[in-house]
Write a structure and sequence with these properties.
Layout (H helix, E strand, L loop, with lengths): L2 E5 L2 E4 L4 E8 L4 E10 L6 E7 L5 E2 L7 E6 L4 E6 L8 E10 L4 E5 L3 E6 L1
Parallel strand pairs: 2-11
Antiparallel strand pairs: 1-3, 3-8, 4-5, 4-9, 5-6, 7-8, 9-10, 9-11
Length: 119
């Protein structure tokens, strides 16, 4: 069984910064990609940033230049450094990992962490 444990969310003022972390644990053989999604109230979940092992990170246009995704493959952890936060960045942030266990490849989600940016 795989678990994704997120941390780092909270309340921050416009222009501030937060760093999210997501650690994957369990019987993991390999992780292909890790990503952050977010869901604002009343809106669909959207991709914020993704990082494929050995590839170039991908960002939503709305966060380019402000957010940075990084991975620690030894710790099976993905981070999202969020700078110059805007009110529209408010939402629940979910970690996603495409990984292989002893059985097969599967997509896995974290439970979500709330980010609130106040003006």
């Amino acid at each position: 069984q795989v678990q994704l444990a997120e941390s780092g969310g909270g309340l921050v003022q416009v222009g501030g910064s937060l760093r999210l972390s997501c650690a994957a644990s369990g019987s993991i053989v390999s992780i292909s990609s890790m990503a952050w999604y977010r869901q604002a109230p009343g809106k669909a979940r959207e991709l914020v940033a993704s990082a494929t092992d050995g590839g170039v990170p991908n960002y939503a246009d709305s966060v380019k230049g402000r957010f940075t995704i990084s991975r620690d493959n030894v710790k099976n952890t993905v981070y999202l450094q969020m700078n110059t936060l805007k009110s529209e960045d408010t939402g629940v942030y979910y970690c996603y990992a495409l990984l292989k266990t002893r059985g097969s490849w599967s997509g896995n989600w974290g439970q979500g962490t709330q980010v609130t940016v106040s003006s």
